[in-house]
Write a structure and sequence with these properties.
The chain is an alpha/beta fold. About 35% of the residues lie in helices and about 20% in strands. The chain has 2 domains: about 120 residues, Leucine Dehydrogenase, chain A, domain 1 (Rossmann fold, 3-Layer(aba) Sandwich); about 140 residues, Rossmann fold (3-Layer(aba) Sandwich), CATH 3.40.50. Helix 1 crosses helix 10, helix 5 packs across helix 6 and helix 9 crosses helix 10. The two termini are about 25 Å apart.
Length: about 280
């Protein structure tokens, strides 16, 4: 039941049809007795700065989840941001402070890394290739660096984005080996698709699966209710895979702490979630 005391968390992005977070947070809030609700709010890129300024004036709004296409632009709209957000060049969480200003943080990378670690994979000294140097790809690269990765290969169709991410990483991790420009996954122990490829039927694969070692862990950030074509191809090679929805479940405990709500494990959240078993729509955090 939503009342006048209910704490609102906005879920900002466009389009909203594929949003999954409300179906995870809201059942858990009800089960845990937390008087809060996550509300999807569709905002197009051109309207986003004005919409964010208006939302800062909503007195019962506590914060926001931020997803495509706003993660990168949010960084320039906050009064302060965490080091993780600065390195990633993007925010996916906003906390409204008492003076109405926004504090931004970033949990995409932490969610992905926690998922890898729950699979028993050590990240210290790992060699990883990441396709996509936008908000989520940058966050994952930063989190891998923080976890002790030895080598990162960054690839993006926009070469300048990959180069910029490399520079940000080296400013904080000068001993890290960071290269750009290749999407050949051969020789890498961790292969990550952090692009939107796979959200639509007919999308090309982000990597050539035949070049991936069968011992590699292959992750995808595209959140579908079924395996993406890329993950299916990787599994056909004998690879262990990590679907995008795992990243979402693993990052939510960090979000809850950020917003000051009671903590939960990813298993708690999965048990309470009201996600459909099947579907074809692309989905977002």
């Amino acid at each position: 039941m939503i009342s006048g005391r209910t704490i609102l968390i906005a879920h900002l992005g466009h389009p909203t049809e594929g949003f999954r977070a409300p179906m995870i947070y809201n059942p858990w809030f009800e089960k845990a007795g937390v008087d809060a609700v996550v509300v999807p709010m569709g905002v197009q890129a051109a309207d986003y700065p004005a919409a964010l300024a208006t939302l800062a004036r909503v007195t019962n709004l506590h914060g926001a989840l931020v997803t495509m296409p706003h993660k990168v632009s949010t960084l320039s709209l906050v009064a302060e941001a965490s080091p993780a957000a600065r390195i990633a060049g993007a925010c996916n969480a906003l906390l409204k402070r008492p003076d109405g200003s926004w504090f931004g943080d970033q949990f995409d990378g932490a969610g992905f890394v926690r998922g890898v670690q729950r699979r028993g994979r050590a990240l210290e000294g790992v060699r990883a290739i990441v396709a996509g140097a936008g908000g989520v790809g940058s966050a994952i690269a930063a989190a891998l660096a923080a976890a002790g990765a030895a080598q990162l290969m960054l690839f993006d169709s926009n070469a300048a984005a990959a180069t910029s991410l490399r520079e940000r990483l080296l400013a904080h991790y000068p001993a890290l080996r960071v290269e750009t420009g290749s999407n050949d996954p051969a020789g890498f122990e961790l292969v990550v698709n952090a692009t939107p490829l796979g959200m639509r039927d007919g999308d090309p694969l982000p990597f050539d699966p035949s070049r991936i070692a069968s011992s590699a862990l292959v992750g995808d950030v595209v959140m579908q209710s079924t395996m993406t074509p890329f993950l299916c191809a990787a599994r056909g090679r004998g690879c262990e895979t990590q679907p995008g929805i795992d990243m979402l479940f693993e990052m939510i405990p960090a979000y809850l702490e950020f917003f000051g709500f009671p903590s939960a494990t990813s298993d708690d959240l999965r048990a309470a979630a009201a996600l459909p078993e099947h579907g074809t729509r692309p989905i977002q955090a």
